[in-house]
Amino acid sequence: MSDHAYVPEIATTRDGVEHEVQGWQGDFYGGKLGFWLFMLTEVLMFGAMFMVLTYYFTLHHADYIEASAGLNRVLGGFNTVVLLISALTMGLGLLKMRSGDIKGAKLMIWATIFFAFLFLGVKAIEWSLEYQHGVFLGLDALQSGNAHSKPFGQILFFGMYFTMTGLHGFHIIIGIGLMLWLLKRINAGLVTPEHHILHWNIALYWDLVHLIWVFVFPYFYMIGADAGGYHIPDIGSLFGGHSNEH
Amino acid sequence: MSTNATVNYQEEKGGYYKVLIGLLLLTTVTFIQPSMFLTDATFVVQLLIGLIKAIIILFYYMHLKGETLIGWTVSFAVFIVFFFFTIVIYDVQNFQYADESHISSAATSAGSPTAGHHSTSSDSSHSTSEHTSGASHESAHSEH
């Protein structure tokens, strides 16, 4: 028997009224509340990072606008839509699980995993293009005190950009791992339409990842949109073709 | 309040698609806004759109609608974040150490080689750079 198999336990009050003692799978509301508390720590962590971003944006306004204008809004926007659709598939998966359609739920989770990998793939292309343009952590453009240094505010902008989108990408990877774990537990019969708190919480986690991107995207990609026009991606440069000026 | 009870997929799925359409529309607005309307307030408008999207996601995808206890808990956490945001923004807009601070000396791009390429960004930076430009003469060593 699994360690987490659901075994009802009955407790009786002094008045003789029987209550079912709730295990972690059965205590739906408690499990949900606990996960929300975890997610609030995520909100506070990303909130602190957004605060730092805002602090430097206020001090280095022009540099931030100019650096943002150089980001690839087409790829960033594409990823926004990918995450949006993945949130839908995750939500529909949970709905299918709650309605008893386990096979459909698993299919939707696999679809969400596909979109998560698609997001990471596009992000990898985007970062590769940045690297080819000489804009990446550790490269001369983002180090102060050399001939290729970008203005100080832009160095801060790109530092925050790579840190926050990187941390967000890390959350995507964690999400993929959680979804694979969820599939394993569904296959083992440990997550069922009657006991689906794990599915619910992982769906909440995925929505949080989406929610963070809802603010990351405009803050980095759109604040300079009116300054530099739309940036057309030059995917060909990844394969040795012409490279756009960044 | 959302419960552990089973649901009817066919009845409920329509809500998810409606939310998707709403979010896609807002995403479209996000894209066209900088070149279409309120172009001098892009940052505020973009974050406002983000806020609307966040509320929709929280209410419908994350099932916060009708949740009293969790709703208040989330509201409190978001309040703390916004409270400190307000303090930090107020503080930094009244930055008093431009002359002493190495960071603020390089804050303005007025002296950077790339400044002025985008007139909009330069214009929009005036209010911020005014109070930091006093030390811009010090910035050369940190930029090159």
Task: Summarize the structure in words.
The complex is a heterodimer of chains A (246) and B (144). Chain A has one domain (35-231): Cytochrome c oxidase, subunit III, four-helix bundle (Four Helix Bundle (Hemerythrin (Met), subunit A), Up-down Bundle). In chain A, a hairpin with a 5-residue loop joins strand 1 (9-12) and strand 2 (18-21). Chain A is mostly helical and 246 residues long. Chain A is built from 7 helices and 2 strands, in the order E-E-H-H-H-H-H-H-H. Chain A starts with 8 loop residues before the first strand and ends in an 18-residue tail after the last helix. Residues 229-233 and 241-246 of chain A have low confidence and may be disordered. Chain B has 144 residues and is mostly helical. Among the domains of chain B are: 7-63; 102-143, no CATH class. Helix content of chain B is 63%, strand content 0%. Chain B has helices at residues 9-36, 42-61, 69-93, 102-105, 119-124, 126-129, 140-143. The longest helix of chain B has 28 residues, at 9-36. The radius of gyration of chain B is 22 Å and the shape is flat. Chains A and B meet through helix 1, helix 2, helix 3, helix 6 and helix 7 of A and helix 1, helix 2, helix 3, helix 5 and helix 6 of B.
